Amino acid sequence: MNERILKLTFGLGPLLFGLLFIPPAFAQIVTLLGWTPPFSLSPLMAGFIIGGVWGLYAQIRGSWISWTL
Fold first, then answer.
1. Pick from 11, 24, 34, 35: most CB atoms within 10 A?
2. 34 within some domain
3. Which pairs count as long-range contacts for 58-62, CB under 8 Å and 24+ apart, including other chains?
4. Is there a domain that residue 48 lies in?
5. How many Å apart are CA 27 and CA 47, to the nearest integer?
6. Domain that holds residue 57
7. Is residue 26 in some structural domain?
8. Dihedral sign, CA of 26, 30, 31, 32?
9. The pTM is what?
């Protein structure tokens, strides 16, 4: 049981990282720089959108950085 949970967690690592680490870091940076996200989104919500999309891309692609498009 525990092994299955760990395998699932590590298998979803890029997506979890994109949803759990990037949004608060993005929100802090946006707030520090005084930027406002478009469509009257809060900085945290904009971070969740960016982190989710980037994490999903990394999950599907298998890498955070793509040198070829």
1. 24
2. yes
3. 58/14, 58/15, 58/17, 58/18, 59/12, 59/14, 59/15, 59/18
4. yes
5. 6
6. 13-61
7. yes
8. positive
9. 0.80
Instruction: Give the count of domains, the chain.
Output: 1
Question: Which residue, chain included where needed, has tokens 């900085």?
Answer: 43
DSSP secondary structure, the chain, as one string = -HHHHHHHHHHTHHHHHHHHTHHHHHHHHHHHHT---GGG--HHHHHHHHHHHHHHHHHHHSSS--S--
* CA 1/CA 48 separation, integer angstroms: 30
Dist. CA 5–CA 10, nearest whole Å: 9
